[in-house]
Amino acid sequence: MRPRTVLPALAPVLLLTLLVASPAFSQSAARPATFDASAATFGEVERLALPSFDNDALLARDEARVAQLRAAGTPTAQRFAEPVAMALDARTAGTWETLSDGRQVWRLRVSSPGAYSLNIGFSQFRLPEGAALWLYPTGEAPLFRAFTAADNETHGELWTPVVPGDDLTIEVNFPRSKPGHTPDFALEIGQIAHAYRPFGLTTEQRHQYDLENGRAASGSCNVDVVCPEGDGYRDIIRSSGAYTRSGTDICSGAAINNVLEDGRPLFLTANHCGNSAGNASSIVIYWNYQNSTCRPVGSPASGGPGDGPLSQFNSGTRLLGAAANSDWALLEMDDPFDPSYNVYLSGWDRRDIAPSSVVAIHHPAVEEKRISFEDDPTAITFYLDDAPNPSATHIRVDDWDLGTTEGGSSGSPIYNADKQIVGQLHGGFAACGNDDPDWYGRMFRSMAGGLEDFLDPAGSGAETLGGRESGQGVAASFTASTPRAAAGETVRLSLTVSNFNDGDANGATFATTLPAGLAYAGNADTSDGNVGEAGGTITWNFDLAGGGASTLSFDVVLTDEASGTLSILGTVMQALLENPLQVVTRIEVFVAPDRLLGNTTAVAIPDNSCPTLSGTSLDVTEPFTWDELKVGVVIEHTFRGDLRVQLESPAGTIANLLDRPGGGTFGTGAENLDALFSDSGEADLFGSSGDHDPGTPYYDNEGQPEQGSPGTAGVDPLSSFDGEDPRGTWTLRVCDGAGQDTGSLERWALLFYGVAVDAEDDTPLPEAFALSAAFPNPFTDAATLTLRVRDAQEVRAEVYDPLGRRVRVLLDGLAPANSVQTLSLNADGLPSGLYVVRVIGEAFVATESVLLVR
Length: 854
Description:
Blueprint: E1 4-6, E2 12-13, E3 15-20, E4 47-49, H1 55-71, E5 78-79, E6 81-89, E7 95-98, E8 104-111, E9 117-126, E10 132-137, E11 158-159, E12 163-164, E13 167-173, E14 186-195, H2 203-213, H3 234-237, E15 240-245, E16 249-256, E17 266-269, E18 284-287, E19 313-315, E20 317-323, E21 328-333, E22 344-345, E23 347-349, E24 358-362, E25 370-374, E26 379-381, E27 394-397, E28 413-415, E29 420-428, E30 438-442, H4 443-455, E31 464-465, E32 468-469, E33 474-479, E34 490-498, E35 505-513, E36 518-526, E37 530-534, E38 537-544, E39 549-558, E40 566-573, E41 581-587, E42 590-591, E43 595-599, E44 603-605, E45 614-620, E46 628-637, E47 643-648, E48 654-659, H5 662-666, E49 673-682, E50 701-703, E51 728-736, E52 743-753, E53 756-758, E54 770-772, E55 782-789, E56 793-800, E57 806-815, E58 819-826, E59 833-840, E60 845-852
Parallel strand pairs: 4-8, 23-29, 49-50
Antiparallel strand pairs: 1-53, 2-42, 3-33, 5-16, 6-14, 7-8, 8-13, 9-11, 9-12, 9-14, 10-13, 15-16, 15-18, 16-17, 17-21, 18-19, 20-21, 22-32, 23-31, 24-25, 24-28, 26-27, 27-30, 28-29, 29-30, 34-39, 35-38, 35-40, 36-39, 37-38, 40-41, 43-52, 44-52, 45-51, 46-49, 46-52, 47-48, 47-51, 54-55, 55-58, ...
C-alpha cells in the first residue's frame, strides 16, 4: 500500500469594492423667454388644431372594453387619453422669432377642444447645451420644470407630463451661442394625446367636471395619505407613484430598493399594465401626487376633486424584466431621483409566508394617493381563486377594513407589518361599497421568477431588505463567494472608493461593524484620511476629490468556519447627504483548490454550430486522487441559453455540464457566462453577467450543471469522473445550438479539492521534512519560505498563478541531507492575486498559498 500526503486547503480570498457617487441635476431658467417683460414683442404663433373628439363616446368605448376584459379575468391598464399620431418637425413647422438680444425662440400652439389635458410624445428630442423647452397652458405660467440637454437620451425620445386644459404652448429658448438650426438640435412631435378622463386637472377644473358629470373620479371611501391613518407610514408613502404610458394609459407602482443599496432608480409595477421594451421610454412617473388636506372618509369631499400636483416627475424608463404568472414588471428610470422629490426606496420581503396584515398605497383611478388597510390574515392563492394553495402565485386580500382599490391602482405595492413590499396589485373586485377581494402578485414567486436578478444582483439570497432614502448619491457593494473556509485563516480586505462627480466629496466616512465569524486583525492602511477600530467597528474618515479614488485595506481573521455568505452592515456618510446610507453587503469567500489547471486559449463559438463542438484541452502529468472536482468556465456570448458545454476526461468519459437551457432559465439580460460548475453548489447556477476581471482567481457563481429545456439530452454530475486516473488530456467543448448569437470560450479551469498524491514507493515520508509558512500573507514585493529536508533528494519548487500557469521556479536541484533551504519569491511583474507554491521531492509533494496585494 502506498502512503499518501493530503495537501492542505489554501487560504480564502475576500475582495471588496465600494463606490461613491452623487447625481447632478440640471438647472434651467425659471421662466420662458415669452414671460420676460423685457423681451421683444412676440407675434402670432402657429396653431395646430386636433380633430374633434366625443369624450362620452370614448369613455363608453373604454367601459365596454374593460367590462369585457374583466369578465374574462384579464385586467388592463386604465386608459385616459386618445392618441393622435403625426410627424411634425420643428425645423419646418411652428413659429421662429429672434429676440432683441439675439436669442432665438421657437413656439407652437396645440389645441384640442374638450380635452381635460394634453401631453406630447416627441419622437425626436435633442437640445443643445443652454437651450430649454417649456410646456404650459396657453396664456398661463408653466406648471413644471423646463426640459434641457440633460434630458437628451440615447433612445432619442421625450414624453411629457400632462398639461391641464385643451390648449397648450410648446416653447424652446436657445442661447445666443446656439441658434436653433444647428446639428445638435432635433425636435419632432410624434404624438399628441387628448385626455377624455379628468386625470391631471386643476382643482377648479375638477369641480367643473364633477358638476357636469355628476360623479367623482375616485370613491369617497378612500383615505388620503395625509390623514392621521398615514402616520407611521410616511416613508413608504413617498415610495408610491402614478404613471402614464404612451401618453394614453395610466397605472401605479413604487420605487424599490435592491441589495446593493446603490440608489438605483428602480420602479416595481404590474406586467398587465402593458409596459414593453418598445414603449418604456414613454413612461412618465409622478411623485408626491397627493392631496394637501385630509378629506373625511366617506364625505363628498373625499370623492371630489383634490389638489395634488403633477409637477414632480421622471420621464423615460427601460424595461428590465417582467413575468405574467405573478404579474410583475420592473422599470429603471433614465435619470436618477431628483433629491428635492424626497422619494423613498421601499424594502421587500420575499419569504414564503402569507402576511398577517397588509397596507396598500396606491392611486385609485390614478387620482391623488390613498392608503388602505387589511387587518386580517391574507391567503396564498392563484389569481381570482379563493382556495388557499401554498405553491400559488398571489396574495389574496379578503376585504379591505379601511379604504379600497380601484382601476388605476394596478401595480401599486402591498406592504407587510414591517413596511416591506410583499406584492403588487394584479386585480380584483374591491370597490367602495363592497367587501370583495383583491389579488397581489407574490414577491416570493416574482423573485424566483427573475425579479431577483435585479433586486439581488449580488446573489446574496437575502430574504428581506429594508428601505432607504433616495438622493443620497452613494452606492456601496462588497463582492466575493462560497461554501467553505477554515477557521483561523487571516484574510486581507480591500476597499476602493471612487467619486464620479466633478465636485469634491469632503468629510466622507465609512463605518462597519464586522459580523460574527470575522475578527479585526489590524494592519489597516489607507491612501487618504485615517482609519481606526474599536470593539470590532472600523471607521474611515477621508476627503475625496472629484474624479478621484481612495483605498482602505485591513486584515481579518475567520474565527469560525465560513459556511455560506457573510454579510456586513456598513454606513456611508458624506457632507452632501442629509441622512446616512445603510448598506447591507455580502462577502463571498473563495477557497483555492489543491490543484488548479487552467487554459486561457480563446476559442470561437460559431453560430448554430451543434452538434459540432469547438474545444480546448489541457494536460495533467501526475497521478493523484481527489474528493471533489469543479470546472470553471468563462464564455463571452450574446445569449448563453443557446450553449452546450461538455467535459471529456483522458479516460473518454463525457459529462454534459450545460445543455441549452434557453431563456426561461436566465430571464432578461442573459449574456455571457462566468460560472463554476460544482456538484455541491446551488441548483440555480446562472445569475452571472460574466463581467469579472479575467485575473481574478474565482468565478461569479457556483452551482450544479444546468439542465436544459424538455427534450434535451440532460446534464451529468462531475462525480461521473470519480475514481479515474487524471493523467492525460482533458477537453472542454462548447457549441451554440440556435441562430443569431455568437461568442467565444475565453478561459476554463479544472479545480481539484481533497487531493491525495501517491508516493513513488512504499517508503514512509521523511519525518524531518517540513515546509514552514514563513511568507507574510498577504505580501507586496518579495517574500521567503523555509524548506527543511532530512534526507538528501532532488527538490523542485514552483509558483503558479490563479489561472494555473507557472510563473516562477524557486528551486530545482539537490537538497543536501539535514539542510534548510530558503525559497525567495520576487514579485516584480506579477499582478495582485492568489498564488500557489508547489514543492515536489522524491518522496513528497506539498503546497503553500500566498496572496500578493499591490
